[in-house]
Write a structure and sequence with these properties.
2 copies of one chain form a homodimer. By secondary structure, chain A is α/β, with parallel strands linked by helices. Chain A contains 12 helices and 12 strands. Chain A folds into 3 domains: about 1-40, no CATH class; about 60-155 and about 275-300, Response regulator (Rossmann fold, 3-Layer(aba) Sandwich), CATH 3.40.50.2300; about 160-270 and about 305-310, Rossmann fold (3-Layer(aba) Sandwich). The interface between A and B is large, with 54 and 54 residues. Chain A binds a DNA duplex through helix 2 and helix 4.
Amino acid sequence: MKDVASMAGVSLSTVSRVVNGSPPVDPELAAKVERAIELLGYRHNHTAGTLRRASGLSSTIGLIFDDVGNPFFAAIHRGVEEVARERSVVTFAGSSDADPERERELVEGVLGRRVDGLILVPTAHDHSYLKRDVAAGIGLVFVDRPPETIDADHVLTDNRGGARAAVEHLRAHGHERIAFVGPAPNGLYTAAERLAGYLDAVAEPLVVHDDVEPLLTGPDRPTALFTAQNLVTIEVLRTLHRLGLQDTVAHVGFDDIVLAGSIEPALTVVAQDALGLGRAAAELLFSRLDGFNGRARQVVLPTRVIERGSGELQASS
Amino acid sequence: MKDVASMAGVSLSTVSRVVNGSPPVDPELAAKVERAIELLGYRHNHTAGTLRRASGLSSTIGLIFDDVGNPFFAAIHRGVEEVARERSVVTFAGSSDADPERERELVEGVLGRRVDGLILVPTAHDHSYLKRDVAAGIGLVFVDRPPETIDADHVLTDNRGGARAAVEHLRAHGHERIAFVGPAPNGLYTAAERLAGYLDAVAEPLVVHDDVEPLLTGPDRPTALFTAQNLVTIEVLRTLHRLGLQDTVAHVGFDDIVLAGSIEPALTVVAQDALGLGRAAAELLFSRLDGFNGRARQVVLPTRVIERGSGELQASS
DNA sequence: CTGTTAGCGCTTTCAG
DNA sequence: CTGAAAGCGCTAACAG
């Protein structure tokens, strides 16, 4: 920058002004500066600016997911980016692998790199250590699962309502004996909510956490299945097909899947809006950075039943 | 940091030393410093360190994809992260949306934030503007598509070989009339390679870029289909099922898909290793940062045929 | 409108 | 082993 200044025959401040587009600068000088920048291949050091800038803002935020490679989280990431992009804010992204220690490392890693905010799919149960950072002005938003030990903005899918809707959809098609198939109780918020939604809507609960095959081949088979999670849905689908029951036992899955429309019968799902989750989280975050100072807000996004066939099989008496 | 120093009754240098784990420091003083850090809730500013540090390294890299929300790129991202993590290197990630201008903005955005390296799925054709940055010591690696105007390390999938393998697989099952279904020529490297691989392996090419239905319902229908891209595969699958031809016309797709094993017949694919692409790219990058200074390297990852049924249908005479 | 100057938070010689 | 001091690249008063 010094070089640019001397080459253009101006002071550092002038270079800084043109680089940052701070208005009061003579067009002629500005042009000289631009030329020098071009010639020297000067690249502005935004980080150094952050150090000195009054606001201290870095136009950088951090995202922490269970796994950046998981399409669900990748979609959230994309949603966040869409709104961040409008402000020229760039995103760090990392995977906690559902490991609280790793999550902590990542948080410290991005905070040490002076992000303006943090969007977190929480894995640890205690985030009280972030209170100091929030007090120091950092934005903090939780996505997909609520915070437990800190009062922070968060955006969730209506998991409970979605599960309820799935079951009610099946009941509307005459089913009474509807089984819940989901991951073993794992302390995960979304899993618990979906189970709760199922329990809300069903008269006689029938919950299975592992292999469904015994249930399907045993006596008194359920006439419909609600699978509460992506991988479970896929696994159950496989079982159903292997047993040749796909046209007999109705099925609704939580979360949409590629090819869900191409299998036979096509799979009815309760879809959530991952992109919307990301967008909403980013919006909450930026509103804080813009000075909003009210108490923690909660945004809950609805789910949507997508009828494709498997969920509309009538209960055979 | 000043506060920590005065609270611990030591100098800034000492605090810096314990924070960075630079050996020669009295354990007793170190303990005092740790305590002060804890009490004050001090958060080290890694960015400021980068500014002064002799190496100038930020332990930060930038990734630019077409779309961070696309599962293929998300998997690459994950692969990169796996190796970056071992060095406590944190990753920026952004989406170019296949727009050269947007790509440029993103590149400038992360370079301005002083990343040590850049991993790029290139969209623009000219990246010569990066030569200066490479000369300045930044690491640069291209993934999935090779660079055109700059000599840089890159890692690719063997798209051509994979396409050839798909066709040969079909030929081995008695097919001679094999159609290629792929995106319209779009200047995309991977698309061109896959078409080339098909042309390598087939005697009488039959190429369709849009709707396959006319071909399938017309006279002299092909006995097998090779679909060269994910979305095309899904679309064709739908068509095949709608026409009831899924058990008649053999089909191999490029790229694996969720549920490919659950449809009927299950879909045979040529799978590529997105995770491996990311890992290899990161390794090339870090070897440069570690001082490797040889000429640009190319890594080509093989594909793998996954037989599931649709590709093993015999040609009916 | 432009230049001078102080200093952001840190690391690194260089002396002790 | 520790401290003093210089300075990384930049922005923000402030004075002209």
